[in-house]
Amino acid sequence: MKKVLFLSVVLILLLAAVGRGTFAYFSDIEDSFGNSLTAAELVSVTLLDDGFEGDPWDANWDDNGTTNWTQNNGQQHGGSYAALCDRDNNGYLTSDDLDGSVVDSITVSFWFNGKSLEAGDILVQLYNSSTYDTWYDLTNYPTYKNNAWCEFSEEITDPQYLISSFRLRFDGSGLVDKNEVCNIDDVLITVKQWP
Amino acid sequence: MKKILGLTVATLLVIVMVGGGTWAYFSDTETSASNSLTAGTLDLNIDSGDTAVTTFAVTNVVPGDSGNGSNTLANVGDLNGELDIQFSTITNIPGAGGGEYEGGSGELGANAEIAVYIDVDQSGDWSSGDIGLKSDDTTYSNPTALDYDAIDNYNSAIWDEVETMATSTADDFVILWRVATSVGNDIQGDSVSFDVTFTLEQANAD
């Protein structure tokens, strides 16, 4: 009993000593609260939205070489016209320079309708600031069906193409046979960038 | 009976003689008046008040952004005090907008960096005499370059006795922040937040 009493007294004295030591001094507290950073979200910005409806129809496709392709009002995906490539109107259809230098990614989408195409007839190419690299052969694109409107949609994240002179080129040089036709319509090029 | 009377008279005479001898010394009296104790005051102000403030709250932060926030700390009491500073736990909140890169655990605190210092001379920049606060609870001084570290690394950081603030002096508490251009999409919509507590203590309080 005495031992318990003694230990209790010692404990009380110890707590009292510690408590006095903490509370006895002067102090004043102020706070800075809710300091925060909140990141933005990437926004989508359209660089090119062209259904070849304008006048001239190739206004967005003439700065990097004039094209032999032609405006076609007989078969279109949207609106009244499309861009047509056949053996009489083949070659390149190259976009004007688009600023893709401060973006996180570029998304290219368009609709295409090919008829009697052979491998390599219509190539989708990207400019790497010195030359053009073949990105896709439309005849091998997963959605491709002969004589039907097919959607192409791909995202570019490779930095070599995220440049101030971004260019999309359709290479129809190989389209030389009779009955081979390809229409391109509703080209949409968007970028994701920080606001 | 005569003998008793004689002794009594003799005793009284002795008492009178002794007493008369005492009263005969010189003496003088002075007074210490109005002795008192008055407690001093220890009073820390932040931005001229005692109300919690926010040092910075920035939204729509993107890679490459930077900025700063500051508060003025003033010892307006009549006692010198030792300044302690403590960060709270760092809270990361993932973006909730449902975007492609949102969700996860919130990565902004791991990617955004801050440098923290006491601008002792209130010059508005990092200069001689200022006190840098590193994320490892230590301090440093100019001309050592400002030490930036990920916000997450300041989790519950404590700097004890950063400085002694004399009465009627003021310093600025400064936080510089930056988000590197190399930071990826993971931070989209994320938030990171924390509180800071400033304690002015009586000297040698701990």
Structure overview:
The complex is a heterodimer of chains A (195) and B (206). Helices cover 11% and strands 41% of the residues of chain A. Chain A is mainly beta and 195 residues long. Chain A has one domain: Jelly Rolls (Sandwich), CATH 2.60.120. The termini of chain A are far apart. Helices cover 12% and strands 36% of the residues of chain B. In chain B, strands 1, 3, 6, 7, 8, 9 and 11 form a seven-stranded antiparallel β-sheet that branches. Chain B has a four-stranded antiparallel β-sheet with strand order 5-12-4-10, with no helix packed on it. In chain B, strand 7 and strand 8 (139-141) form a beta hairpin. The A-B interface holds A 25-42, 104, 194-195 and B 40-46, 50, 52-63, 69, 71, 73, 77, 79, 81, 95, 97, 99, 101-102, 108, 112, 151, 173, 175, 177, 179, 185, 187-202, 205-206.
List the helices and strands and how they pair.
The complex is a heterodimer of chains A (195) and B (206).
Chain A: H1 2-23, E1 27-39, E2 43-50, E3 70-72, E4 82-86, E5 92-94, E6 105-115, E7 123-127, E8 132-137, E9 149-156, E10 168-171, E11 181-193
Antiparallel strand pairs in A: 2-11, 3-4, 4-11, 5-10, 6-9, 6-11, 7-8, 7-10
Chain B: H1 2-22, E1 44-46, E2 57-61, E3 66-75, E4 81-87, E5 91-93, H2 108-111, E6 112-119, E7 131-133, E8 139-141, E9 149-150, E10 158-165, E11 170-179, E12 191-202
Antiparallel strand pairs in B: 1-3, 3-11, 4-10, 4-12, 5-12, 6-7, 6-9, 6-11, 7-8
CATH top level label of chain A: Mainly Beta
Total tally of structural domains of chain A:
1
* Contiguous runs where pLDDT drops below 50 for at least 5 residues of chain B: none
**Shape, principal axes of CA atoms of chain A:** elongated
What portion of the residues of chain A fall into strands of 2 or more residues? 35-45%
Write the CATH architecture name of chain A: Sandwich
Output the radius of gyration of chain A.
Answer: 33 Å
How much of the sequence of chain B is in beta strands?
35-45%
Q: What share of the residues of chain A lie within helices?
A: 10-25%
Total count of helical runs of at least 4 residues of chain A:
1
Helix/strand-derived category of chain B reads mainly beta
Tally of extended strands of chain A? Answer: 11
**pLDDT averaged residue by residue of chain B:** 90
**What is the CATH superfamily of chain A?**
Galactose-binding domain-like
Distance between the termini of chain A: 76 Å
Number of domains of chain B: 1
Instruction: Tally the beta strands of chain B.
Output: 12
Radius of gyration of chain B from CA coordinates? 34 Å
Number of helices of chain B: 2
Report the biggest beta sheet of chain B as strand number plus sense, adding barrel if it closes: 7 strands, antiparallel
Low-confidence stretches of chain A: 18-22
